[in-house]
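chain below, 335 aa
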Amino acid sequence: MSEQQTSGVVIITGGSSGIGLSTAQLFAQKGWRVGLIARGIAALDAAAESLAADPASVATAIADVTDGAALRQAAATIIEALGPVDVWINNAGVSTFAHFTNMSDEEFRRVTDVVYMGTVNGTRVALEQMRPRNAGTIVNVCSAIGLRGTPLLSAYSGAKWAMRGFTEAVRAELIAERSRVHISVVYPPSVNTPFYSHATARIDGLPRPPPPVYQPELVADAIHFAATSRRRDVLVGGQTVQLGLLNAVAPALADRLLASFGPRSMTSSNQGIADARDENLFRPTSRVSSTHGPFDREARSRSVQLWATKNRPSLKSALTFGAAVCGLMVVGRPR
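prediction:
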């Protein structure tokens, strides 16, 4: 895939709700043919219907990303319908909110298998398609939690950190073989999606994203940017940048701050959140989900940080020009 490609075929795992569906909608709006992979047929059908008037531009396939053979078959079904895959997005995710010692072995393993091994399986299938053509981009959707582990989310934190390390290793291997296949990582902040309604909970209260919360369309924009610009990493939101910097510069302080404020900021007793509960750790959800969760009133739809990231070359040029003008003014000032 060239760095300026504006259309093609994109395959998205976990594409029937939340960030995955929002990303699918954005790619479809920009003229891409979209393939969606998820576990539930009803949700997939509803997602496909929402994407485009032309049914030939959308294909769906059922698979659990923990099953590599099923994922490979799902990809083959979509590719047969739409053509060779140009962009593969590993987005599927589940979680359990609980103190580590209150989480069962099965729950911990399931989160790890979906979030981490699902990414491994998806990357393997994508590379099988892309390496022979020496073209394509894989986008792994990580999290701010991949920059700093968070209490109540030990399994999810560990899986996202594993995803990050895995991606770095495979990227280096591709560079070593001079491959033109590119791997990018996107780090979303807290996002208003059904993720929190779907998560298993072993806590006092109900799971919620710690503020500030952003809308999924913003993350979809970042994923599309990562896929088409071939940027190595794309962080979304000032919260994500600050969390990564804090953990790099003062990890002990991060420990104390998250111990004090983390659990309180991640639980709620709101009835609207309770009404939206539909756990999906071990089974597909029983409802057709949307892109948004129950946090629209507080969610932000813009990020100055993401805008600056996308316009980095222009900002650099503007700053350089501004510095040059200031320098000329200083030099030319009468003495």
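The chain has a mean pLDDT of 92. The domain at 9-302 is CATH 3.40.50.720 (Rossmann fold).
thats it, cya
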